[in-house]
Amino acid sequence: xxxxxxxxxxxxxxxxxxxxxxxxxxxxxxxxxxxxxxxxxxxxxxxxxxxxxxxxxxxxxxxxxxxxxxxxxxxxxxxxxxxxxxxxxxxxxxxxxxxxxxxxxxxxxxxxxxxxxxxxxxxxxxxxxxxxxxxxxxxxxxxxxxxxxxxxxxxxxxxxxxxxxxxxxxxxx
Length: 173
What we know:
Blueprint: H1 6-9, E1 13-21, E2 29-34, E3 37-38, E4 42-43, E5 47-48, E6 53-54, E7 63-67, E8 71-73, E9 91-95, E10 101-105, E11 113-114, E12 136-137, E13 140-141
Antiparallel strand pairs: 1-2, 1-7, 2-3, 2-4, 5-6, 7-8, 9-10, 10-11, 12-13
């Protein structure tokens, strides 16, 4: 613990920076540097209860607050850690160090996920319902792509799979 003087006992909140983190075992512990003095290992507040656990890695150099020399509160936006672009009173944003970003805007009712890498979804059953939309992979639209089947099998090989229109249905009237 920080060496507590009588004057320090009157101060219940300190601000400092993470000096060390536990890399194994108890991962939510940190030593904090407060004006050149270091704490013992202190628990770092995370979102955790019986309903949900959310772990965010602790980083050396993070600005934090210590309450009553007992636990660390983190996540203070500062000169070295600014709010993400687009932060406002109606948008929740999670932005990762590699640039991946998930946000939800309650006014626009939009949930964009911008991943710099791969997205995998694993489920026993999956359903996607939407009134309108499309799936585009490698520039090919699921809704608007056209092609002819080119194999003669029980799936109707050689049949034109283009949607009906006047150009390919002129003699069907």
